[in-house]
Amino acid sequence: MTLAVPLEHEDLPRSSVAVIDAPRRATAWWPLALTGVGALAVAVGLAIVDALPVGVVADDSFYVILARALASGEGYRYLNVPGHPAGTHFPPGYPALLALLSFVVPAFPASVVAFKALNAVFLAIASVCVARLLRVRVGLGAGWSIAVGAVTAVSVPLLILGNLVLSELCFLAIALALLLALERLVDEPAPLSRVLALGAAIAACALVRTHGVVLVPAAAIALGARRRWRDAALLAVAAVVCLLPWQLWTARHGGTLPSPLLGMYDSYATWWIGGVRTLGVSMIPATVMKTTSETSTMLAVLFSPMRGSAAHAVTLVALATLTVAACAAAWRRAPVTLLFLAGYLAIVVLWPFQTARFVWTIWPLLLALVAIGGWTALGRPAWRAPLRLALGAAFVWVAVGYAAYEMRGIRGRWWSSIPRANTPRIAMAVRSVAANTSTSEVVATDYEGAVYLYTGRQALPIITLTPAQYLRDYSPRENAMEGLLPLLDAYPVRTVVAGAGKAFDAAQFLAAQSPTRLSLRERIDGGGIFTVQPR
Q1: Which of 109, 163, 243, 458 would staple 415 via disulfide (CB 3.0–4.6 Å)?
Q2: pLDDT tens-digit profile of 310-358?
Q3: What is the 3-state secondary structure (H, E, C) of 63-116?
């Protein structure tokens, strides 16, 4: 119902005019504030972009390689591997986006700056969407919601991801926008076309990062709880149908690579199932214990205002308290968001891989839980005073801790810490390969994706990636016998360029065997260049 106000309020008493205008004044700044949050995110996202090379975390180079393959008409294939096997590990959404962008930006390597700058747009979308999600769906105050959006725009974990050519921020932007739409779908009946469109959009999100598939059961459960079975079924069917071509592609082309390449080049499901077959079902509880420990430690460090085990324990208790309160406050108004978050984190703890990147990918939602928990301490007068006091103290504790972390990160420019640390190693590998191999050679080396992109040589890894390696450190013998040696047997590698650490130790192990497969040709900074001996 709309209240009609006479022109200039001439027929109303002054007190009535004030009552009518107060809500307008209170919310008139909201669109401007959202615009400001988006502008802040774009400005910060562009300010941190650097020209350091791609390949510093392996995945970023593979995204660029797959994008190059698509743009050049080669298909969705790994150009760095002999035979150009089909890409079945990374969903094609983000590489396809980079491929499109590559047609309008300078050629590689200058295109890397444009790829990184694109993340500023995704950061802005995520910042605005999380503010709108909190305000429109959860009912947080406008000031609280804008504050979370602004913190998202300058959040160091997201800036670290944003300064790399990774799919995380693209996924985050799509997922948050979808959560807004799905929460509305749960509340309001929608035409068939909209339900199907949202199912297709979920599939698009999952084709950027596979975790997006969690949106299907999250929305379906929320719809089912309201007895909207038809909409739940149509949403799921639309998502499955749109994902079916990718699943058929991975089923047809998966499992054809040598075992050392499965971890980084084959499908996620095949890799995880292979780990269970090798290690037994004990892999699952062992993984959960380690991922839970890693995640808890990371959260304690990022949110604690003081160091030490006691302070970290208090931080974890405070975060748990705020999370429980936030879920209680938001469950009725944002069930899809909470179900998505629960399903996403369940995958994280079951996946035998370092958890930081996975957790940072949904970082604004974790910040939102903290904010909702703090808001309940101030905005829920019906809650008992001792509970509100405890929530208020927990919020202040973690807010001070996170503010301190942000200040340290901004002063230390942590968003470029990974490229700064790994660029010298990439440069050494690229120089060594370029100087010691011909353009037609296949090499085994550290940072194989970067070596291919910057030298044109087809390149393979030295160290394999298996679930067992996550759960315990492999010995040089295991790295050599399970990683490097099978690759030397499977591909015509003539030169191995190994940097310091596990790669060099594995190469050294093979060089010390009789009959030898490798001979040291030259020492380089911390590592060595090896010649492969014929069998």
Answers
A1: 163
A2: 999 999 999 999 999 999 999 999 999 999 999 999 999 999 998 999 9
A3: HHHHHHHHHCCCCCECCCCCCCCECCCCCCHHHHHHHHHHCCCCCCCCHHHHHH
- DSSP, collapsed to helix, strand or coil, labels residue 445 as strand
- Strand 442-445 versus strand 527-532 pairing type: unpaired
The amino acid at 158: L
List, for residues 90-126, the tens digit of each pLDDT value: 999 999 999 999 999 999 999 999 999 999 999 999 9
Cβ atoms within 10 A of the Cβ of 170, count?
Answer: 22
pLDDT digits 0-9 by tens, 151-160: 999 999 999 9
DSSP 233-254: HHHHHHHHHHHHHHHHHHHHHT
354 CB contacts (<8 Å, ≥6 apart)? 294, 470
Total Cβ atoms within 10 A of residue 382:
5
SS3 call for 443: strand
Please state, as a whole number, how many other Cβ atoms lie within 10 Å of the Cβ of residue 292.
Answer: 13
Q: Coil, strand or helix: which one is 154?
A: coil
d(CA 514, CA 535): 11
Query: The tokens of 492 are what?
Result: 């015509």
Place of tokens 């499908």: 267
Domain range annotation of the chain: 280-411, 418-532
The pLDDT, as a whole number, for residue 514 is 85
Q: Which residue has the tokens 């050294």?
A: 508
Q: What is the pLDDT of residue 428?
A: 93
Residue 465 in 3-state DSSP?
Answer: coil
Measured distance CA(216)–CA(174) in Å, rounded: 14
List the structure tokens of 312.
């970290």
